[in-house]
Design a protein that fits this description.
The complex is a heterodimer of chains A (241) and B (57). Chain A has 241 residues and is an all-alpha fold. Helices cover 77% and strands 0% of the residues of chain A. Chain A has helices at residues 3-6, 10-16, 19-39, 46-68, 70-91, 94-102, 104-122, 128-133, 148-164, 174-203, 211-217, 219-238. Chain A is extended. The chains are: A mainly alpha (241), B mainly alpha (57).
Chain lengths: 241, 57
């Protein structure tokens, strides 16, 4: 083979960087757009400046750390940046947040930066061998129902998630109304995610397990559910109206 | 569709129902009931995923 044929392409080189290194660029962008202006703005506390700098240092050191300690590198990259940024925002004076609130371009740029950081952190571009090594990529098997059941399961979950958005609009206080909407959004995402897990679970290569054994694995949440129902029955019996 | 898949879908529907009750309780400021229903919904959701999780091939 010639040298040009052996040389890896740009995509292969990005894949070889590792997960946290790929997240560093969007993370740095999000930091510059949404954290630095508040931490180093007029009237900012020294704690905010320190937290912002620590977050940046952790983000930049994470790829170096990842080569030796992969888990620690990921924690440094994600939680280092997120917790220090939260600290900066919590300590920010209301005046320093006003330009952020009213500058739509900066708001959109910040949203894109954090979305790209989240995407690069959670779903980095890894070569197939790495995905296989981490158990992230497995060949799926057909179950003989042409995907109609899968579509039905995911479709039902999407419908249920959408239905949740119609519930709980009667809250009187604005803070509670926002909390209800946050809960409904989170629950909707979890419902769709759970349906996707069920569909993937149906097609993943498996050992033949007896239904009793499979039910045994779901024992903890099922027992919790049973205890919860029993607790409600007892509560109604003795303390109910 | 296997029997276990049916149970998983039923648990998913139960979870959605419990979460909806939790949201209604939260909206009328009944936090105790809201917590109860939301935990019940999450348990049901967890059971739905665990019951279909395949064994290692």
């Amino acid at each position: 083979l010639s040298d040009t044929a052996r040389r890896p392409g740009p995509l292969a080189r990005v894949m070889d960087l590792g997960a946290t290194a790929q997240a560093t660029v969007p993370g740095f962008y999000a930091w510059v757009v949404t954290v630095a202006p508040i931490a180093f703005g007029r009237g900012a506390q020294s704690v905010s400046k320190g937290a912002a700098l620590i977050g940046l240092v952790l983000l930049l050191l994470a790829p170096v750390c990842e080569r030796r300690w992969p888990s620690a590198g990921r924690v440094m990259s994600i939680w280092g940046l997120v917790t220090t940024s939260l600290l900066v925002w919590v300590l920010a004076t209301s005046g320093s947040l006003v330009p952020m609130r009213w500058d739509p371009l900066r708001t959109v740029a910040g949203l894109i930066g954090w979305a790209l950081f989240a995407l690069a952190s959670v779903a980095p571009a890894l070569p197939p061998r790495e995905l296989a090594k981490e158990g992230l990529s497995r060949r799926l098997e057909r179950r003989g129902d042409s995907g109609r059941v899968d579509a039905l399961i995911v479709g039902a979950a999407i419908l249920l998630a959408a239905s949740l958005q119609c519930v709980g609009w009667g809250a009187e206080e604005p803070e509670r109304a926002v909390l209800v909407r946050l809960v409904s959004l989170g629950a909707g995402v979890m419902l769709v995610g759970a349906s996707a897990s069920i569909v993937v679970g149906r097609h993943a290569p498996r050992k033949k397990l007896a239904p009793a054994k499979r039910a045994k694995r779901a024992l903890v949440p099922l027992v919790l559910l049973g205890l919860w129902v029993a607790a409600a029955a007892l509560y109604e019996m003795f303390w109910g109206r | 569709m296997h029997f276990v898949d049916g149970i998983a879908v039923s648990l998913l529907v139960i979870a959605a129902g419990a979460i909806a009750f939790g949201q209604m309780a939260l909206a009328r400021s009944d936090d105790f009931a809201a917590l109860y229903w939301l935990v019940a919904g999450l348990s049901s959701l967890g059971a739905a995923v665990q019951i279909t999780r395949p064994g290692k091939a």
